[in-house]
Amino acid sequence: MTAAEVTITRYPAARGVVWLREAYAMFSRARPQWVMLLLLYYLIMAIVDAVPLIGQLAVPILKPVFAVGFLAAAWGQERGKRPELRQLFQGFRANLSALLPLGVLLLVGVTLAILATALVDGGALLDVLSGKTHLDEEAIASGSMQRAMLFGAACALPVLLALWYAPALVVFHDCSAAQALVLSLRASLANWRPLAIYGLLVGFYGVVLPGLAMALIAALTPGDAALPLAVVLMMPYLLFFVATLHVSDYVSYRDIFHAAEKPVAAAAPSTP
Questions:
Q1: CA-CA to 186 of 20 to 30 Å: which in 13, 72, 168, 272?
Q2: For the chain, how many structural domains are there in total?
Q3: How many CB atoms lie within 10 A of CB 26?
Q4: b vs e for 30-50, b when ≥16 Cβ sit within 10 Å of the residue's Cβ?
């Protein structure tokens, strides 16, 4: 299917719940494989990030390339295969010339959004992010810094929506980078209601719930042992949650761009 033949399906708000539920179901049927895939990804990103001068620039540029690996693993699982570590590198064997510009856009877009926060707080957030000042309770409570964070997020949102489905469109539809960005933005705007519900659920399960759990652990654990214990206890949950988010990228893409096809997510992976 080419870019000209792509059909975008619009869904009601409740579909955002379905995406997360189906993604978790897929993850649950191949939990060890998804966790290993996720750990390998973060290990590679940590190594790249540690490279002097170019590491911090390379990480966002490579994100869309590695996103293809998770998409390929989910696509294969729907067809009876188990996610494999080698699939993480599928993006390097796909349309790399279109995927790399997506990463450059991510880098430039997020950087400009962060720089734009200076218009709101006079550069206070930039000073914290650059390490010139430390983030303390006073800074967190500052209304100007909170407004700057919201303003930066609003500035970054169009770029993030344009990139949301772009890697999948490049690989599965053979779109150019420009075509993928336009189609992804159109699909995201058409489905802003389910994406908003999806975002609220991600905020609840990824921020509110872990925050409450860690606060409870800290209240019940004396002394300096509270933080290490909280990290150890919450790590499996966070791994499962992040892996589910990666699967949900594929689930929502398939739902929006392949609505006429019968999903086979219920199929169990084949025995190796």
A1: 72
A2: 1
A3: 26
A4: beebbbbbbebbeeebeebee
